[in-house]
Amino acid sequence: MKHARIAWSGAIQLAIESDGQLLITQGPHQGLRVDFDEVVWLPPLVPVPQPRTVIALGLNYADHAKELAFKAPEEPLAFMKGEASLIGHQAFTKRPADVKYMHYECELAVVIGRTARRVKKADAYDFVGGYTVANDYAIRDYLENWYRPNLRVKNRDTCTPIGPWLVDAADVHQRQGGPMALKLQTTVNGQATPLTWCSMCPPSSSTSAAS
Amino acid sequence: MKHWQPAGTVYGCLLNFQREWDLWAPRMAQDPHKGPPRAPVLYVKSANTFNPGGSLLLQDGVKEVDIGATLGLVMGTDGMPDSVVLLNDWSVPHESYYRPPVKFRCRDGYLGCGSPAVPWASLDLPSLSIMVQLNGQKVQTVHLSDLVRPVERLLADVGEFMSLQAGDVLMLGTDVLANGQRPRAHAGDTVCLTVPGFAPWVQTVQGEAL
Predict the structure, then answer these.
(1) What is the sign of the dihedral through the CA atoms of B1, B5, B8 and B10?
(2) Which residues are registered as beta bridge partners of A116?
(3) Which of B40, B83, B107, B153 is most buried per CB count within 10 Å?
């Protein structure tokens, strides 16, 4: 099942995908269908009691690490982001007027379903609640070599579009090859860029996680 | 009374005390840094670090921790601080500021945060200092008048690239001693932070049970 969180009719609504429309699942409009272009898409993440932890992994794609002449890191090279950098599908991301190196980075985002600590590799999928897609923009004009990646590059307002759907983990895990067989496709102004396969990163690891 | 805990994202600020900046200055142009930082150097303390309890548990082979006495600005709805909290921003000692792994700052329990927040309007921040005591002995005094970026400038420079939302916390930074290191604590040590007008914040460092 594909879940969305949308603004519609003056309030936030939870919905699922149904026959090419959004089916509202809770509240006074439960059961109503609305079209995709009638709504404002929000990040497909329900509020959590504590500030959300957003972990991004760097250099986790074998070819990217190779291209940058790095040996793949021996342990995950993670950095943290604030939830305020997230925005929904089809929103505006602000590009500063003077920048030359605003890079899009398509990410499979793994939404953690329950508290995970000292997880065994074989059990890792049990902790996944669902999957979504994020664009983890970097504005490399602002790169500074202090506590890389510095937040001015990676934690900017509006620079982490995420969604539109949160796909139930079971739906992905039941597919042939599971999440590692997913292909990530980025298009820029309608033009496809080279495909990235999740199998380029080590099994049972992810490119990005948001609990 | 319930211990205070952050309601939003907690950001820390590196190199925001003049003494540490001056100690680093001769090396800032060297590799791998290639120049002094221009924007505030920030990091995130994730929710797993929030620790309103009386102890910090050392785990996974960590033998010593840096004490990070600091004040955090708790943001209101208007982009200005609503209150201020006394925090211990614990970290695993690390020499490199290039790309340190998050495991140095984001381990479970590494943000001591139980002292109740104090209203912003009642405080004159530059006049405050934090006294750090290790087992009853004073080991450091942190003067809030020694910030590289005082509050207004820090808020402006951070606000240039990211918004602080109501409930988010911006920590002002942690100072070093004359040797460039932060005071360190080991299993069995009790660390007490005191600031006039704030409830003292005391935590005991515990080793992992064998």
Answers:
(1) positive
(2) none
(3) B40
DSSP state of A162: B
Instruction: Test B162 with A155 for CB contact under 8 angstroms.
Output: yes
| pTM, 2 dp | 0.93
CB contact under 8 A, B162 and A147: no
Closest-CA residue to A55 (of A77, A75, A80): A80
pLDDT, tens digit (0-9, with 9 covering 90-100), for A8-61: 999 999 999 999 999 999 999 999 999 999 999 999 999 999 999 999 987 666
Inter-residue long-range contacts of B101-106, CB under 8 Å, 24+ positions, other chains counted? B101/A75, B101/A77, B101/A78, B102/A55, B102/A78, B102/A79, B102/A80, B102/B46, B105/B12, B105/B43, B105/B45, B105/B49, B106/A80, B106/B44, B106/B45, B106/B46, B106/B48, B106/B49
| Residue type present at position B157 | D
Per CB-CB distance under 8 Å, the chain B contacts of A155 are 42, 44, 161-162
Of the candidates A79, A85, A117, which has its C-beta nearest B102's C-beta?
A: A79
Q: Do B162 and A150 touch (CB under 8 A)?
A: no
Respond yes or no on whether ipTM tops 0.90. yes
State how far the Cα of A117 lies from the Cα of A168, in Å rounded to an integer: 21
- Where do we find the tokens 């033998």? B63
Q: Model confidence over B15-56: pLDDT tens digits? A: 999 999 999 999 999 999 999 999 999 999 999 999 999 999
Residue A15, H or E segment: strand A11-18
Chain A neighbors of B162, CB-CB under 8 A:
82, 84-85, 151-152, 155-157
Contact A170, A179 (CB under 8 A): no
| Residues of A within an 8 Å Cβ radius of B | 50-53, 55, 75, 77-85, 117, 142, 144-148, 150-152, 155-157
